[in-house]
Design brief:
about 170 residues; mainly alpha; 9 helices; 2 strands
Length: about 170
């Protein structure tokens, strides 16, 4: 496998996990915020897609599927269109409510598709391009892509854990 194949495989992993987490879930469980202060499953999966979408748009110089493909309208959230969840407090999290959990998987799939398409057009040299710095260290395009994927995986895993707590559920493959 080359680097692009590995990144593509990794980028697609959160989709199957998300399908498992949302399979048969009630609207109450998907939107419930533990103690009215912690992230809901809806917010966790929405944010997985939003952060990937927004970061990919910046990285590629392109646009976001959130706005261009009509996802913002489909979700109809009482939030600014450019919000992606970084720094959200409980009141912000509470604004991410869905009646149909398939909306969450659809949006995540669309953002992953955009990322996979982007990756497929990169060269090894592109992956090594320094695109910024963090803590004084250079950040390459490849490292940024890994970070986007890692964030999505982490949030989907949190959603699986939360569903287990709410419904005594466990992921099954």
């Amino acid at each position: 496998m080359d680097a692009r194949e590995i990144l593509t495989d990794a980028a697609q992993r959160p989709i199957e996990s998300t399908h498992q987490v949302l399979k048969g879930i009630s609207t109450d469980a998907v939107n419930r915020m533990p103690d009215d202060a912690h992230s809901s499953i809806a917010w966790l999966i929405w944010h997985s897609g939003r952060q990937m979408d927004a970061q990919l748009a910046r990285l590629s110089g392109g646009s976001q599927v959130w706005t261009d493909a009509g996802w913002a309208e489909r979700f109809g959230l009482d939030r600014p269109t450019d919000d992606m969840g970084f720094g959200d407090g409980p009141a912000d999290v509470a604004k991410v409510q869905v009646q149909d959990p398939s909306l969450l998987t659809g949006y995540l799939e669309a953002t992953v598709d955009a990322l996979v398409s982007y990756i497929s057009n990169l060269t090894d040299t592109d992956l090594d391009d320094v695109i910024g710095h963090f803590g004084g260290s250079p950040v390459t395009r490849g490292v940024r892509i890994v970070s986007m994927i890692d964030d999505a995986v982490a949030h989907v895993a949190q959603a699986a854990y939360l569903r287990g707590l709410l419904e005594n559920w466990r992921i099954g493959y």
